[in-house]
Model the fold of this input.
Amino acid sequence: MSINRNLLSENRKYLYGVITLFFITMIFVAFGMSDNSDFDVARREVLLRKIGDELLIQSGDNKSRVLPIEKITEIEYQIKFENEITFDPDSLVNTVQRLLASDPLTSDYVVNVVNCGNSSVAYGYAIANNKKDDIIACRGRLQPKGCYMINIKFKPTRINTGTISYMLSIFIVLMFFGFIFWRLDKLRKERPVDQNNNILAFGSVLFNPQQREMIINKNTIDLTGTETRLLHIFALSPNQTIERVRLQKEIWEDEGVIVGRSLDMFISKLRKKLEFDTKIKITVIRGKGYKLEISS
Done:
């Protein structure tokens, strides 16, 4: 198998691994966000009960209960009381604002004090993250004792678009490279004819220089780099004498290295690997070089 093909395969496996790891991370992050969200919602309900408790104390009631907090919608809650209360709008605004300041999910919200009987709004105000957008009226006017419910409606929590955009960008990049590797792999599999153009056939031998191998009678034989270069020269010129000087030059000197290796040793190794086809042999042409002889 060639170096490029191995590299492509390894890169493809690496990319698939990264994509899998990315999806696993996304799942854990999603579960983590869900767990944190559930915790924050539960904490918010405790804060709302605390608001009801302080309003009772401000009304002079230390004995009656704050009834269970009712979740009207995903963003709206209702605080109910066991007995009638009275409230001062200034104290209500300050109490709610002070307690909800520790709620990480809270930015903007609207508070409405409604009458139990007809759900009419006895008092209301709005708090914004930008203080200049606050809407607070009728401050300093003590409200008469009565049956009231406190409705608090929160602004929907915005998704962290920065984090999602970042993760989406990573996903798109991974998918892009994944598509490229998938496409290259598909083209490689769909074009066997193009690969076969690099295969040289002589006798019963199928010789693939890129893969450094030859197939003789269904036997796959691996070749070294030097053996591949030698056989490639012979295969391009079968039944022709190849001068010894040319072989030495093209195999070693053209690479900038001149060594005292024995050419005969590599020729001998090739002869043994070609023994599977008795009609092919490498012969010595005395005083000249070698010849790849192919009998019909």
